[in-house]
Amino acid sequence: MSAVLPLFGVRDRSPLELAPGAVHVPGWLTLDQQYELVEACRSWAIGPVPIRHTRLPNGGVMSVQTVCIGWHWQPYKYTRTADDVNGAQVAEFPANMIELGRRALVDAYQDPTAGDGYTPDAALINFYGEQAKLGMHQDKDEKSDAPVVSLSIGDTCVFRFGNTENRNKPYTDTELASGDLFVFGGPSRFAYHGVPKVYPGTGDPATGLAGGRLNITMRVTGLTAAPAQTDERRARGAS
Ligand SMILES: O=C(O)CCC(=O)C(=O)O
Ligand SMILES: [Fe+2]
C-alpha cells in the first residue's frame, strides 16, 4: 500500500491578489493566535459596551452582532461613546493589535515597509451565527484611505468582494476560513464587499469558538480624540 501523502488539510498560504490592493492570505493566523483573539473578543463582547445587533436608521436590525474597540461604530459614524447602546466608552485599541495589523500588511503586500506608519485605531468585531449575513457595503465611515485588515476565525464563510462603483456584479466570491487574513487597501480600499453565507460547523473548536464565525476588521478612522474636558471647562459650561 502506498503511503498517504501528508497533504490533507494543508492549505496554500501564499497571498492571493483578488484585485489591485485586495489580498487574501489563507491560514495566516496560528491556532494559538486565533485562541488569544477569541479570548480577547469574548471579554470585549461583555463590556464596557456589550456586543449587540446594530439597529439601522431604517428600523432594521443587523443579523450580525458587533462590538467595537478604539472607537464605537454606529450607522454611519464613529463615536467615542456608544450612545446607541449604553453610553459607555469602548475598550482601548491594544498596542499588540497595531503590531498585528502592521505585520498583516507586510505579509499581504510582501513588502517589508508596507506596515510602516500604519496605526489602526478602531476595530469592528463581528460575530456571525448560523443564519447571519452581511449585505454588500463599502467601509467608508473612516476619514482615511489606509487599508482595512480583516481576520477571520471559526466557521468558513463566503466573502463577496466587489467593485468600487456599486454593490452589483462584477464581484468575486471566495471563502474565508479560520485564520485567514484579507487586506483591502489602495485602489480596492472602497470596494463593495459582503458576507452572503456562513457554513455552520466548519470551524475548529480548538480556536475556543464552539460555533459561529468571528471577524475582526482593523481600521484607521482618521479621527482625533476630543480632548477630555477639564473640570474648569465643564464648570464654565464649555461644549
Ligand atoms: O465579516 C467579514 O468578513 C467582513 C466584515 C465587514 O465587512 C465589516 O465589518 O465592515
Ligand atoms: Fe465592511
UniProtKB/TrEMBL annotation:
Keywords: Dioxygenase, Iron, Metal-binding, Oxidoreductase. GO terms for molecular function: dioxygenase activity. It holds the Pfam family 2OG-FeII_Oxy_2. Residues 119-222 form the Fe2OG dioxygenase domain. The keyword Oxidoreductase applies. Gene3D superfamilies: Alpha-ketoglutarate-dependent dioxygenase AlkB-like. The keyword Methyltransferase does not apply. Its cofactor is Fe(2+). It comes from the Bacteria. This is Alpha-ketoglutarate-dependent dioxygenase AlkB.
